[in-house]
Amino acid sequence: MMEITLGLLIAFIVTYYSIPIIIKVSYEKKLFDLPNERKLHSNSISTLGGIGIFAGIVCSFLLSVGFADNSYGFQYLMAACIVTFFIGLKDDISNLSPYKKFLGHILAALILVIPHCAYLNNYGGVLGIYEVPPLIAYIISIVLIVLIINAFNLIDGMDGLAASVSIIACIGFFIFFFLNQKTELAAISAIITGALLAFLIFNRHPAKIFMGDTGALLLGLLFAYLAFAFINIHLKEGAVLAYKFQSPHAMAFILLFLPLFDTFRVFAIRILKGGSPFEADRNHLHHIILRLGFGTQKTVFFMISGAILFTGAGILLDKFGNNIALFTTIGIACSTMAVLVRKSGQINKQKSISGKESKKQNGFIRILNESRRIVNK
Fold this sequence. Notes:
Elements: H1 2-28, H2 49-64, H3 74-94, H4 98-113, E1 122-126, E2 129-131, H5 134-154, H6 161-179, H7 183-203, H8 212-235, H9 248-255, H10 257-272, H11 285-291, H12 296-317, H13 322-376
Antiparallel strand pairs: 1-2
Helix pairs in contact: 1-2, 1-7, 2-3, 2-7, 2-8, 3-4, 3-8, 4-5, 5-8, 5-10, 6-7, 6-8, 6-12, 8-9, 9-12, 9-13, 11-13, 12-13
């Protein structure tokens, strides 16, 4: 327990004292994100908060996590984190093409997959798939890691959102690892939580700094690693667990549900429209909730509540198996999404009609005033 507490505190302190320095340097060197029609913020804000998160996590990991049991391949995790960090940093400072970023994500994934630190060859009957040949398992594992990395990058679009949703996922992983005495993995979950709590002090609305790709990509990689560890602990032969899930594959997905679901939905919309799945737009879940009239803080609260509710639903559905737990949760999310989109469309339509009527009234008033001016002459 001391290891876990120490890890959380070190991550919090390092991140907390790093962020103000990063903000100061960002403004001195003009390294900030400018507002535009797609973005929600109206001021120039630094996007280098991920540097503070990275510093807090790495320092805490090196100082507090024991290496007595290195079966989890911690050195490979740190190497992948460093690769991901520099990809995000380059993109935050001078922009990186989506395809170069994608290649970087694959490299980070390979560092984890090849030594089997994040490798899965048994898919628990999801869509009827159980064990697959090693080559297929390598490919699927890489695809899943890249998908999770991008999911957390895409959800980072509003003050406090990515950090808050990530903390909920961290708590879920932490509880499982802690109950099953997986101390090192519980410590990693606590370390991420500590760094994010410190970052959230500066990122809550109105934000003083964003995590940028540097932080979002790093979080995605770390959560991919934890999700694979979560599943493989369940699949390990002879493993005795104090608490285990009957549907670990589904539960790992549900713990990361909002980022993954929103990514699948947005990618599908972009592809169906004939565009690139990596092309930015305003079709994310938080954009839709904003269009319903919620402010930033209420939208973030709505998303946090959703993450907690979906986790609860996953726990209740766990006993029914991976497929039922997974697809029932997806079905609930799709139904909720359909209601939100429909309501958002109605509100936009009403605003459009009101805007046209307002223009007509303004035009009539201008004509009336002009007529009075002519008569008075």
